[in-house]
Amino acid sequence: MKKRYILDGLDCANCAEKIRSEAEKHKLITTATMNFVKQELIVEADDKVSSADILKTVCEIVKKHEPDVNVFEKGNKPQNKTGYKGEIIKIISSALLFITAFTLEHTLADSSVISTAVIILYILSYLICGIAVAVTAFKGIINKSFFNENTLMLIASIGAIILDEYEEAAAVMLFYTVGELFQSIAVNKSRKSISSLIETKPETAELLTDSGYITVAPEEVEIGSIIRVKPGEKVPLDGIIESGSTSVDTSALTGESLPRDVGEGDEISAGSINISGLITIRTTRRFEDSTVCKMLELVESAVEKKTKTENFISVFAKYYTPIVVLAAVVISLIPPLFTGFDFATWVQRGLIFLVISCPCALVISVPLGYFAGIGKASSKGILVKGSNYLEAIAKTKVVLFDKTGTLTKGRFEVTSIDPVGMSKEELLKYAAYAESSSNHPIAVSVRNAYGEAIDESQISGCSEIAGKGIKAVISGVAVLCGNRKLMAENNIDCPDVNGTVLYIALDGKFAGSIEIADTPKEHSAEAVKMLKNSGVKVVMLTGDNNSAAQKTAKELGINDVFSGLLPEDKSEITLREKSKISDKGKVMFVGDGINDAPVIASADIGVAMGGAGADSAIETADCVLMYDDPMQLADAFTISKKTNRIVKQNIVFALGVKLIVQVLGVLGIASMWAAVFADVGVSIIAIFNSLRLMRK
Ligand code: ADP
Ligand code: MG
What we know:
It is a single chain. With about 700 residues, this protein is of the alpha+beta class. The strands form five sheets. The protein has a seven-stranded mixed β-sheet, sandwiched between helices. Strands 6-5-7-13-8-11 form a six-stranded antiparallel β-sheet, with no helix packed on it. The model has no long low-confidence stretch (mean pLDDT about 85). Adenosine-5'-diphosphate binds near residues 435, 443, 467, 481 and 543.
């Protein structure tokens, strides 16, 4: 049994991971996956377990770590937007009380009435923010999670009150609450930018039934159904247009800003927007198999793959917090034994130390940094499937490019047809029939050049040999259609022609060749130049022959070219490059997935073209370029570098400030105010620093 729960209000990536791992350890639950972007926990349990029990278990686990989060089963309750109104009112009222008390304290002459009023105001201000923190802390303690930020803050502030430092106690709580609010806002902002992509997800479909059109969820539509899409609406499912014609905006899927005209018989993809006419579509895929849906799942699960830095920080926090508490106790108790039992001073220093040492800034800002980076990348049409890959992109030392469909458009034009003993039309027809079931760019182009319908009944025994071509029987004639390798393998003599050439043999005899030409993509040369300028080695790998490969390489300024490769040769070269560079450097392979999906898998960072690419490639890739544009790599590099830099800054800054203030605190130089800055101030600065990634 699989259950999906919405954890409404979940903002802390670190707690999300704690919840997930604890759920998975629970005896009722077999697996648990957390989708932080969707605030969704998916658990699997034995069918014998009742749903009520699972819900109860999940609630218990969630409440333990995040008492403010509401849990409900997906679909049971509309997901209300998490608002900040309550928090803001709380902060403003607490702040007003605080300011009033502070002004009274520092302007009016001492009188016992005034000082009592001041204390009451500080305590009220303290309670407004502090009660929620106390509740969370107690729940944590009940559930044996003693050391979290809430407990640290509670101990420190209660200690301050005992020492008659009401101002400091109120300040600690107020600023801590402000910090938490900023964290919430920051996480939601990044989440929104990731889900701006998700907005391309269609919500409803108009399905044709016996009683006319009805509105249903796209998930419910079976393959082969007829749906209707009105102008202005989003196409909910992949399919073929049955009737009507229109222009569609596919920019959300392909980045192509110009609308595309489509009519009867044309394919149309879910997520594109119908601009002008009413159309009906016969669906060809279930909703969950549509490209949009797959893409979205990829991004949504991206956050689960952790970088080493993130893992380090969560382990660090686990040991760090108890150590800090212990240190605070030691500071409070040991020195007074030697310095004349001045406990008040040393307890205060211990408390200050406690506040300073709260690990929030690190625990929040490191995952948030990567989260924001992934968000930024997806807003540019780059899907990075995990923060570990985002971190690795900047370390790339070698980029291996596939040629056809990656650096070139993959839309070949037939430039000449040279038949032997038959008409040009006949030769092209054999080629088109042989290529009828291949999805290789060459095949698509040959079929387009032929332009007529293909009578499938004439084709029997058709098979594709990766990196070589096609073997088929057409109307009883054995047809070979492919490159020189295919001909050589079958002992067929053929002339050597320069460029990308399709050789055709009928019944074991050479029957002619078709020359085709492909052009580089608009930004390929620029992308190659950018990579080379930043010190990356650029290599082109292709299954095409040497003359065609050299021509493209020259146009693009690539010096290292390997041609005539079979898919396994490409993998081998990738592995060789990997073994040549040091551990820290990474090898990236960029391909369209046609004849190179295994290579994408064997590179450190496999990049696939999302638009033209094969589904299998998009699945195995670590990073998908949705707009099929090599220049997107430039963006990916920039975002990766920037993310790594910001995360590093945050770690150094947070640890540095804390260390300095800790020392000052122990020496009695830093006040509680400095401690509050070292904690909340540093968190907020780190959060804002992370959010710089999201800026345009
Ligand atoms: P690239 O590495 O440039 O993307 P591929 O590995 O996909 O190229 O293909 C290598 C070569 O194999 C092509 O240039 C072509 O000569 C031949 N080939 C592969 N598939 C086919 C096909 N379906 N029809 C004809 N030739 C093919
Ligand atoms: Mg290719």
